[in-house]
């Protein structure tokens, strides 16, 4: 019967104005990753704490995982010494649990398991199409990037939202997201930020500041004197409270890492959720 999953790609690098091009299955990350980041991460807290450096890259997908990748073509073109553009397009089939009418989606699946008859019935029964672009300007340590994409499913997403944890599940078949990322980077100081929004009518902002005693360090290095990632998300409440008043959810996350000595680390974390 063969293997259950194959991954394929063709990559071209440093050819004329083409900085990198991947055809097949690939992953993307732009800015701090608020709207486009399907690269590898170790949980929300670790990802937020280490995502300070703005990165725009295309990587081929060679993992055994059937989730969290795009399929099509993406390329970064270097238009000048300070300006680059990355268009991308993708079409792929995905696993999903359908509602009883068999025409709408209750849950999108990412496990990749196809062991039983019911799991085989959910295998690749839905398709998604995506296209977008990123434009990045970088000069003398300053950088600004704009990312936008459009995503469509061939079936409408209609999840059951009676459970509280499903309250923010997306509904519909067509979505868009856009963001602008910005910052300054030199040998010892890294200031980065990204602000994102979409057709969900919410916005999210992530700021990151790092001060280092060594110009060649990462976020957890002993030479990192101070790192401060901050995440702020504001989501209009889709439900009306008693009396018909609309509310907004404000989610604030902050972490401070201070290392006055190699053997002493001061860690401060704050996570706050409130309704306004």
Using brief descriptors, characterize the structure shown.
14-stranded mixed beta sheet; mainly beta
Give an account of the 3D structure.
The structure is a single chain. The protein is built from two helices and 14 strands. It has helices at residues 43-50, 117-121; strands at 9-15, 18-29, 57-60, 70-78, 83-98, 104-109, 126-139, 142-157, 172-185, 189-198, 203-212, 224-240, 246-261, 264-275. Strands 1, 2, 3, 4, 5, 6, 7, 8, 9, 10, 11, 12, 13 and 14 form a 14-stranded mixed beta sheet that branches. The termini are far apart.
Topology (SSEs and partners):
Blueprint: E1 9-15, E2 18-29, H1 43-50, E3 57-60, E4 70-78, E5 83-98, E6 104-109, H2 117-121, E7 126-139, E8 142-157, E9 172-185, E10 189-198, E11 203-212, E12 224-240, E13 246-261, E14 264-275
Parallel strand pairs: 6-8
Antiparallel strand pairs: 1-2, 2-3, 2-4, 4-5, 5-6, 5-7, 7-8, 8-9, 9-10, 10-11, 11-12, 12-13, 13-14
Number of helices: 2
Order of helices and strands: EEHEEEEHEEEEEEEE
Structural class: mainly beta
Helix percent reads under 10%
Describe, in short, the structure shown.
With 276 residues, this protein is mainly beta. The chain has helices at residues 43-50, 117-121; strands at 9-15, 18-29, 57-60, 70-78, 83-98, 104-109, 126-139, 142-157, 172-185, 189-198, 203-212, 224-240, 246-261, 264-275. The radius of gyration is 21 Å and the shape is globular.
């Amino acid at each position: 019967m063969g293997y259950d999953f194959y991954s394929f790609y063709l990559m071209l690098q440093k050819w004329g104005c083409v900085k990198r091009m991947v055809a097949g299955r690939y992953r993307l990350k732009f800015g701090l990753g608020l709207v486009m980041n399907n690269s590898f991460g170790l949980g929300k807290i670790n990802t937020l704490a280490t995502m300070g450096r703005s990165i725009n890259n295309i990587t081929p997908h060679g993992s055994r995982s059937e989730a969290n990748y795009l399929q099509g073509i993406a390329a970064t073109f270097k238009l000048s010494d300070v300006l680059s553009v990355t268009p991308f397009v993708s079409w792929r089939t995905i696993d999903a649990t359908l509602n009883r009418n068999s025409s709408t989606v209750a849950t999108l699946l990412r496990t990749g398991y196809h062991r039983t008859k019911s799991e085989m019935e959910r295998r690749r029964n839905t398709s998604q199409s995506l296209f977008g672009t990123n434009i990045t300007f970088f000069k003398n340590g300053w950088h600004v990037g704009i990312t936008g994409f459009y995503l469509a499913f061939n079936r409408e997403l209609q999840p059951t939202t009676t459970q509280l944890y499903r309250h923010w599940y997306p509904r519909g078949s067509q979505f868009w997201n856009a963001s602008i990322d910005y910052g300054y980077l030199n040998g010892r100081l890294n200031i980065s930020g990204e602000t994102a929004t979409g057709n969900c009518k919410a916005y999210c902002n992530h700021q990151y500041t790092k001060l280092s005693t060594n110009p060649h360090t990462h976020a957890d290095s002993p030479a990192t004197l101070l790192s401060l990632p901050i995440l702020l998300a504001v989501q209009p409440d889709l439900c009306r409270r008693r009396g018909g008043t609309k509310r907004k959810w404000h989610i604030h996350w902050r972490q401070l890492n201070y290392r006055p000595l190699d053997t002493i680390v001061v860690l401060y974390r704050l996570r706050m959720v409130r309704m306004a």
